[in-house]
Design a protein that fits this description.
The chain has a single domain, classed as Tetracycline Repressor, domain 2, CATH 1.10.357. The protein contains ten helices and no strands. Helix 1 packs across helix 3, helix 3 packs parallel to helix 8 and helix 4 runs antiparallel to helix 10. The protein starts with a helix and ends in a 12-residue tail after the last helix.
């Protein structure tokens, strides 16, 4: 019995989805192709029907994780304050398999291929643009620099909060960084007409 193009595409996507989730949980070197294929319900021998190399899988899995971020609550917020609070939340901290790949894979990506780094960079650029667009009207200074500061704080805070075993300290990290970032953008008070 033949294997349709639709079935092949579905199988390919299943492999990418498993890799995307597991790379975020375990890092790029934390899971083998054999383990990804096994979890996808496939044999290792079928891998090369879908990918020329493991590096190709990494690129697709990173891109898929980034695309997933475009659909997630982390990027769907309407205000900068809500974006900061959502990103630096305990819910985001605790959902590693669906968390932000920019934070989860930052160190791994630095040691991978240019193609994977390009997929990562594109997601970062999208995130920076979103942050710039959410800044309150009248925000002074270099918006790009402010967006870079916020995202750097995001990655550092979420990483530290996941690394420490003390739940109280973990929550303090998220709360403190969130409140400090929000304080950089005070709400503008409406001007009243002079009497």
């Amino acid at each position: 019995m033949g294997y349709s193009q639709a079935e092949k595409a579905e199988t390919h996507q299943r492999i990418v989805d498993v890799a995307s989730r597991r790379f975020r949980e375990l890092g790029l070197e934390g899971i083998s192709v054999a383990d990804v294929m096994n979890e996808a319900g496939l044999t290792v021998g079928g891998f090369y029907k879908h990918f020329a190399s493991r590096d190709d899988l990494v690129v697709e899995a990173v891109a898929a994780a980034c695309d997933e971020m475009n659909q997630s609550l982390l990027t769907a917020q309407t205000t900068l304050k809500k974006s900061i609070q959502t990103y630096l939340s305990e819910a985001h901290r605790d959902k590693v398999d669906t968390g932000c790949p920019l934070a989860l894979l930052v160190n791994d990506i630095a040691r991978t291929t240019d193609d994977a780094r390009e997929a990562y960079t594109q997601r970062l650029e999208n995130s920076l643009s979103l942050l710039e667009s959410q800044m309150p009207k009248g925000t002074e200074g270099n918006l790009r620099a402010k967006a870079l500061l916020i995202y750097s704080a995001y990655i550092g805070a979420i990483g530290l909060s996941r690394a420490v075993p003390d739940p109280k300290l973990s929550s303090q990290i998220l709360s403190a960084v969130s409140s400090q970032l929000i304080a950089l953008f005070p709400a503008k008070k409406p001007q009243t007409a002079a009497a």
